[in-house]
Structures are given as structure tokens and as C-alpha cells.
Design goal:
By secondary structure, the chain is mainly beta. It has two domains: 131 residues, OB fold (Dihydrolipoamide Acetyltransferase, E2P) (Beta Barrel); 158 residues, OB fold (Dihydrolipoamide Acetyltransferase, E2P). Helices cover 12% and strands 32% of the residues. The protein contains six helices and 16 strands. The strands form two sheets. Strands 1, 2, 3, 4, 5, 6, 7 and 8 form an eight-stranded mixed beta sheet that branches. The protein has a five-stranded mixed β-barrel with strand order 9-11-12-14-13. Strand 11 and strand 12 form a beta hairpin. The longest helix has 11 residues. The termini are far apart.
Length: 306
């Protein structure tokens, strides 16, 4: 069929009602958002957005309502989609944006693709990876993996991906989303090592839309976290510790989930796997810890400093 591309859409969307099909690859995926309110009667008030790209650049794509339970889990980072009968809207200005792995990629930020059950009912097709042809010119998924030895030099709020061997998993804790609110964020602290430093990665992992992964993080698993944000204590605190926290677009993977993921081709991931082969499992198990109270960031050692 006749295809269009994202660059052409941005130039012509105002003058069209019907758009040609699109062939795109998913580069980033947000957590699922529930926006239901008691006074609004909606069956499936869900929303998720993705960053999709073709040879011309990258654009946001929003999945609405009952399409979320139907498609969210099948739409993975790296999945190729053929879309037809989609809508085009002006972009929502307050949305968070992931940091692209390819900094040269053009970003179309004025409009977004909207996938709905009706008006119009979108047709979504997932193209199996073995059927994807190089001549389609779809970009590969790129990552920004860092090692633990590189972390201390990175600025606050820098976006990166990490891989490590889990040595500590804290219990799940809750924090209120807002003061006096009934809604909570669920999170846990995790330590992971990669052999490049004596210090572990300290990871604050919020429950994303992957409960099956979040609940099964345990010591000795290979953990991959994408789109993490660096949190640097910007004060002159001598005990300052750098840690990483999840963003809206973070994805988490543990042993058993890595097969077929695009990051398995990354050089730093391959180096990490080589390092793990040189380690004694029995020695590492002795250093692992689960649960307990983990006060972090740590309070100062005296009340005066506090």
C-alpha cells in the first residue's frame, strides 16, 4: 500500500483528514497512566505514550482507553508497527520526553499520533522482526549505557541506561504522590554491581507498568534499567552519594526477560556479560542482602549538620 512518513505528516497534516498508513519502530515506551475520576463515567480511562520513529525522525504516539489493555504489553521497545486510520493531534505540552539514544535524530514535537477505538477506529498491525526489511529504513533502537566507574562524573538529571548484577534488594516502600493524597508511589531500593568500581549502582526503582518484573527482582539476577535519571547531591556534602531513579519512560528487565531485547547487541552489555563469566557465583552470593530498613539518602552524622 502507499505509505507516508513522519516528516511528510508534519508538513501536510493540517490539509488532510485521511492519512496514508505509517510504518514505524517503537524507540521508547512510557508507563501506563490511569486518569479516571469518580465523577467521570469512562469504561477504560487509560493512556500510554510511545516515541516512534522512521527514516525521517521521531514523534510521540498516544494509545487511548480500551486499546491500552489490548495492545500495551505487545508494544515493546523495538517493535515495528503498521498503523492505519490513526488521528493526528497537536502535542500535549506538559508531557515528559525521554532522552533519545541517537542524539542526531530529528524530533517532530508539534504533533502526535493518536490511536483510538473510534473516531476513527485505528488499525494496528505488529510486523514480526524477521519480516522487517532493511530497505524500509527504520532506525535501530540505541541506548546510552554507562558503567559504575563513569557515574560519579555525570551531571544531575542526566539520562542513562545501566546493567548490573543485583547484590541488594530492599523491601517495597510507599511514598505519597502529594501531601494529604490517598495515592501512593510504590518503590524499592536496589544495589547492582558491574565490576568497574568498588561501589554499586544505587537504584531507586519505582513500580512501572511491569509488576511481574518489579516483584521478582532478587539478588544474583542480571538487571537492566533504561532511561534512568542521575540524582546528584548538589550541596557540598562530604558523604554525598550519587544514585539513579526511574523516569516515566524507564523499562526494567531481569534474568529471563533479556532474550530478544535490542540492548543485547550493545557493547557495554556484552562487556558486562564477559565480566560475570569471570566471577565466582558462591563468592557473590555471600555478599548479597534482601529486605530490611534502608534509610537513603543517609542523614548527616550529627544534629548540627542536620
Amino acid at each position: 500500500s502507499k505509505l507516508t512518513n513522519l516528516g511528510h505528516l508534519e508538513m501536510t497534516w493540517r490539509s488532510r483528514v485521511r492519512f496514508h498508513p505509517l510504518l514505524v519502530r517503537i524507540l521508547h515506551k512510557s508507563r501506563l497512566r490511569y486518569y479516571g475520576k469518580p465523577e467521570k463515567k469512562m469504561d477504560m480511562p487509560y493512556q500510554a505514550y510511545f516515541e516512534v520513529a522512521d527514516g525521517s525522525g521521531m514523534m510521540s504516539m498516544v494509545l487511548w482507553n480500551s486499546l491500552c489493555p489490548e495492545w500495551y504489553h505487545s508494544m515493546k521497545v523495538g517493535t515495528v508497527l503498521l498503523l492505519d486510520k490513526y488521528a493526528i493531534k497537536t502535542s500535549y505540552p506538559f508531557k515528559t520526553h525521554p532522552t533519545p539514544g541517537d542524539s542526531q535524530m530529528k524530533r517532530f514535537a508539534t504533533i502526535e499520533i493518536s490511536l483510538n477505538v473510534r473516531d476513527p477506529p485505528t488499525e494496528i498491525n505488529i510486523i514480526p522482526e524477521e519480516m522487517v526489511k532493511p530497505e524500509w529504513g527504520l532506525p535501530e533502537v540505541k541506548y546510552r549505557f554507562i558503567t559504575r566507574s563513569e557515574l560519579d562524573d555525570l551531571p544531575n538529571n542526566h539520562s542513562c541506561d545501566v546493567i548490573g548484577l543485583v547484590t541488594f534488594v530492599g523491601r517495597a516502600e510507599r511514598a505519597r504522590k502529594r501531601e494529604h493524597s490517598e495515592d501512593f508511589w510504590l518503590y524499592r531500593w536496589v544495589h547492582a554491581i558491574d565490576g568497574t568500581s568498588d561501589q554499586p549502582f544505587i537504584l531507586e526503582l519505582f513500580a512501572t507498568s511491569q509488576p511481574d518484573v518489579f516483584e521478582h527482582i532478587h539478588p544474583m539476577t542480571y538487571l537492566v534499567c533504561t532511561q534512568m535519571r542521575v540524582i546528584q547531591d548538589l550541596t557540598e556534602n562530604p558523604t554525598r552519594t550519587v544514585y539513579l531513579t526511574t523516569s516515566n519512560e524507564s523499562q526494567i528487565f531481569i534474568t529471563g526477560w533479556h532474550k530478544g531485547q535490542p540492548y543485547t547487541k550493545d557493547a557495554k552489555v556484552k562487556n558486562f556479560i564477559q565480566w560475570t563469566k569471570s566471577q565466582s557465583e558462591a563468592d557473590q552470593i555471600k555478599k548479597t542482602v534482601i529486605g530490611g530498613y534502608y534509610p537513603f539518602p543517609r542523614p548527616p552524622d550529627s544534629f548540627l549538620k542536620y
